[in-house]
Amino acid sequence: MNLRKAECLVTLGKLQEASQTVSDLESDFAAKQTLAASSFQILQKNLHRLKKKVQEKESLPETFPPSLAKAFEDMDLKEENEQISSASPSVSLCTDPLKGRCLIATKDILPGELLVKEDAFVSVLIPGEMPHHSLENKWDTRIAIGDLYCHRCLKHTLATVPCDGCSYAKYCSQECMQQAWEFYHSVECPLGALLLTLGVFCHVALRLTLLTRFEDVGKVTSKLRDEISNNISFPKSKNLVKMFNYDQEENEENDKVVKTPIPGCDISGKYENNYNAVFNLLPHTENHSPEHKFLCALSVSALCKELKAASSRVLATGLNSSKLKATVTPELCADLNIWGVAMLRHMLQLQCNAQAITTLQHTGSKESIIANSRQVRLATGIFPVVSLLNHSCSPNTSMSFTSTVATIRAAQRIRKGQEILHCYGPHQNRMGIAERQQKLRSQYFFDCSCPACHTEELRTAAGPRWEAFCCNSCRAIMQGDDVLSCGNRFCTESVSRDHLVSRLQDLQQQVGMAQKLLRSGKLEKAIQQLLRCQQDAESFLSIEHTMVGEIEDDLAQAYAALGDWQKSAAHLQKSLRVVEAHHGPSSVEMGHELFKLAQVLFNGFAVPEALNTIQKAEKILLVHCGPLSDEIQELQKMRSFLLDLPPIPAGPLG
């Protein structure tokens, strides 16, 4: 029993306890010596094996120091924030005169610490997205995301349960289908074609409005009536300001002042994942263009017209079907204008507050030894708590999704009093400052003044390293606008930008042909094509150009398929250099690339290199994806297997 206990402790990584258990067993056997000689030898052999395994694991550097590893112990929020639902006590909700609402660290936060774990208030699956697969030369099943994921909980499922009333909505179970029907699909079902035409934002707006029926309908109706009576002037509505954007409210009966300092909070100051919080997300009515507001109003008008027609049809038939009557709720029939105003407000909110729910999709064939993956946009959701995070082009958090649940973890050490920041898309490692500022201004209506934007110099001459051209003579970066000159003052090389762009387009076409050969299994021809592309790329692209990284990654995959692990690892090392320049050393993209390198080194039995790479990949992916992700589980299996191997003489991969 104690021998098995020691083995379990070693597997769990509790080396100190395992070592003590082994010592106790040795002392126990030495004292008794009552076993038969053969049994005693077997036990001694097992003890020796366990001691050796403990020593090997103790000699390895830890993936994280103990204090840092502790940050990953909480898969769920064991203690919820008293002020903010779905948030940890490590953050507090504050207001800033310039930034508005924001989240601030209440203590020092370690990388990987769980800060927010919030289920979407509403999520709508994106129709028409086709998952990537490698069957283009065989047959095309035309499988869309809507066929693979539950339309309510977004869980991946291959055996969907379709709705009885429409051909679009599909669910993972009867329970999900029933809940969706009760909450919103009874109204949405006959509107399927129209909702697909009007788009996801209109669909989200309708579903948000329908869910208010299950909260305080009277209070919601009062708020919406105030908007109509104030000419739908959202930010200037006096009654609305008093009702939920107020800083203080006069109580005439007892002449006291009740303070509600932050919009979206209830009277006790609690910010929850509910319709009140959603309603208080800013619609930015004054910032949207007249054209955008007109299109939103037109979409809502078309939807309301169809809702009214559907209600009239059901009432005219006089049928007793519970499903038909469910499409006409008392709240919906009372005043359709109220629901129209609500939907219009939500459509205007979504441009700045909608969150893309993504999933990690593995690409390539099942026979592929190296796992490729990419982020796929699965749905659009509303997360009231996540929406509290302000933007930074160099954020200190990372977001991941499991079905409809968004998880925010610290991506770096955050000091007490610092703001918790999230990236809305424009990241300093993905685009230059001018492009970032333009995107943020056009979509989110603000000029970013984060530290990255404040300190970064405009690099209009050369552009980002991952897009830069290099001199054919001396390999220095080319600079300029229409005509590019070598950055080396001792070199006189110059060339037109149009010429280099044309060469890049030709190269992209050649790489595409090589990738097609790779997918069809013609590995030798693919490698020959890619090596020619590599030689061409080296003559005019910087070593950190994204096209260079793509070529190296494809070569690594081709050599891995042939079992040449040494060459595969060498090309992946070059690809890593490009990924680090483009996305940063601690990015999730870097973690995915390190994961691929770990697979190659693992298959090539390069034990020390593989263990070192596993640790690097795990350190990054734990922060971005959490300890339950598929990649983390796979890395742990690889490490465990390598540590159980007998000593292998050092040598090249092969």
TrEMBL record:
Pfam families: SET, zf-MYND. It comes from the Eukaryota. It catalyses: L-lysyl-[protein] + S-adenosyl-L-methionine = N(6)-methyl-L-lysyl-[protein] + S-adenosyl-L-homocysteine + H(+). One of its GO terms (biological process) is methylation. InterPro entries: SET-MYND_domain_protein (IPR052097), SET_dom (IPR001214), SET_dom_sf (IPR046341), SMYD4_SET (IPR044421), TPR-like_helical_dom_sf (IPR011990), Znf_MYND (IPR002893). One of its GO terms (cellular component) is cytoplasm. Keywords: Cytoplasm, Metal-binding, Methyltransferase, Nucleus, S-adenosyl-L-methionine, Transferase, Zinc, Zinc-finger. It is found in: Cytoplasm; Nucleus. Residues 150-189 form the MYND-type domain. GO terms for molecular function: histone deacetylase binding; protein-lysine N-methyltransferase activity; zinc ion binding. Residues 89-425 form the SET domain. Protein-lysine N-methyltransferase. Monomethylates PRMT5, modulating its transcriptional activity. May also act as a histone methyltransferase. Plays a critical role in cardiac development. Acts as a key epigenetic regulator of gene expression during cardiac development via its dual activities as a methyltransferase and negative regulator of HDAC1. PANTHER family: SET AND MYND DOMAIN-CONTAINING PROTEIN 4 (PTHR46165). This is Protein-lysine N-methyltransferase SMYD4. It comes from Ictidomys tridecemlineatus (Thirteen-lined ground squirrel).
